Amino acid sequence: MQTPWWRNRRLLPLLVQAAVGLMVLVTIAFLLGNLVRNLSAAGLLLSWRWLNLPAGFDISETLLPFNAELPYWRALLAGLVNTVRVVLIGLVGATLLGTLAGTAAFSSNGLLRRLSRTYVELVRNVPLLLQLLFWYFVVFLSLPNGPAAIQLPWVVLAKSGLYLGSTQLIDGVWQGSLRITLEFAALLTGLIIHSGAFIAEVVRGGVTAVPAGQWEAARSLGLSAGQTLSRVVLPQALRVIVPALNSQYISLAKNSSLAVACGYSDLYSVAETTLNQTGRAVEVVLILLGTYLAMDLVISLLMNRLNQLVQIQER
Amino acid sequence: MARRQRLLITLAGLCGLALVGCANDEGTLQSQKLALIKGRGELICGVQGTLPGFSSVERDGSYVGLDVDICRAAAAAVLGDPDKVQYRDLNPSERFAALASGEVDLLSRNTTYTLSRDAAGGNGLSFAPVVFYDGQGLMVPKASGITGIKGLSGKPICVETGTTSELNLADRMRELKQAYTPLKFQTSDQTYAAYLQGRCAAVTTDRSQLAAKRTGFPNPDAHTLLPDVISKEPLAPATVNGDPLWSDAVRWTIYALMQAEELGITQANVEAKVAEAKANPNLADLRRFLGVEGDFGKQLGLSPDFVVKALKAVGNYGEIFERNVGSGSLLRLERGLNRSWKSGGLIYAPPFR
Q1: Is B326 helix (H, G, I), strand (E, B) or coil?
Q2: Which residues have CB under 8 Å from A256's CB, separation 6+?
Q3: Within this chain, do residues B143 and B55 fall inside the same structural domain, yes or no?
Q4: pTM for the full model?
Q5: Pick the CATH number of A52-310 from 1.10.3720.10, 3.10.180.10, 1.10.645.10, 1.10.620.20
Q6: CA A58, CA A68: separation in Å to the nearest integer?
Q7: A276 and B20 in contact by Cβ < 8 A?
Q8: Chain B CB within 8 Å of residue A296 CB
Q9: Which of A19, B2, B120, B310 is deepest in the core (most CB within 10 A)?
Q10: ipTM for the whole complex
Q11: What's the pLDDT at B29?
Q12: B17 assigned to some structural domain
């Protein structure tokens, strides 16, 4: 006897898949059709020619040389380089801070332990935007200027910027081998401190996942506390930490788009100016979406490689 | 496998065609926007919201200002009640998208009238008459000793992102071959906070806005406007491009406020003027303007007495100016270019014929 098709175990999953696939396609077709219809009704069909027009606006600080006569795509690229700069330094800083705060939670020193907990609870329960506004408007913009600036060895903190290396005061204006703007410093501080708290929790979780027997075994072998952590516990904890770290890194990269709150010219800030001047909302948003997606996929890819390296090598 | 894929593609294509088929059945001379506003019983007006004199919130939560009075006049003309307005605070980057998406019916938010904002290939707005002729200026702390734009060479300047100010500053500095650092912020509050904290040597935007914001500073006398005016800034309300009937209704409501000033009709005497027009059939101009005879209101899709309703709500253009930004306000701005053409200004309404 032949099985009716609705009880066919091989056909049924195929039918369900086809139905779901069709629904997805219909939704996409509907959205695209709607977009194209409305855009052509408004005479705004997608066009990319504006990318080659001169931008006509300036960007406050760029690694990539930029001036107002260069085209829009150069402006967006300069913004992207600024974003990548803050993300890369932010990733390193947040990882260091997070690892320190996360391992401090296991310290035998009670003060250190409580400090770590207070930091994590305080920072991760306050919205990042508020924190950025706090760092920029309350902390950094309150720095004194000129001779009254805060002078530390190799570092001068002034309202006109942070000066590193050999610093000197010439005509009331600070000069240093490296100048960091307050906008960059505020964004970087905010991102590192915010992500650091989350990474600290990830690290703490990873270390907790290592059985207590491992600590005891290491101690009975006569390893010091530092050796126990770096040789025995952390290598095992990394297997738990790395996958969770991936999402923290990705959210740091995305959070960098809040830069406009503290006046830093990142990709989002440049794109917003571009959008306003060209009126090309859809194109600019597509560029933004694509760029942030690509950046996060690259981070994911690298982290997945790292994950493969730290997992137990099965033989 | 290949056949199934082809089938799916064909189906998707069919769906696309079906969607294109149901495009639009407009074409009749019917304003969707006017019908929508009347049906809703409320006008949604996009304003700045934190700019004394133009649009700001009072202690009791009500909005006041020159831009707000334009919204009120439009609501009075369309709905017969100036209070039937819902205000939306918009920042410069949001404003055009909010208007284009239909989130607001009317943008009355000190917006500069420019080619690219008007053109269909640009922002595609439809501008109403200019309600305030302004120019971009720079404000510096008096203590800085800076007396002109040349003194700002190499210095950081605070500016709001997404504004014409940002572009004008770049153009002028390029012209002067002067280096500078533009520090851009998303809201005007952030911009002025950074300036007041001393991060920037100067803050730049339209001169009226600088004067307005200065009234809210902790120490207004410590700041001064530089004499340089670096651009033309005609500020005008705007509507979407696609609905000419609604755009005309807004345009002629604003012209009516200007025409009323020319004719000497005020909020206080409008009733008397209507009575006068009704009593005297020889005053044809006045009768047509106030809707006693003719069908100007109907031609615009409004009630015959829309002019009277708008004037009763906010008064004529001169009254609106003096009350919000002129001698009757904290700003005390001169009327300057914003005088009626009869007194040598630029405020001029085309004939009501």
Answers
A1: coil
A2: A83, A86, A87, A90, A187, A191, A266
A3: no
A4: 0.77
A5: 1.10.3720.10
A6: 5
A7: no
A8: no
A9: B310
A10: 0.78
A11: 55
A12: no
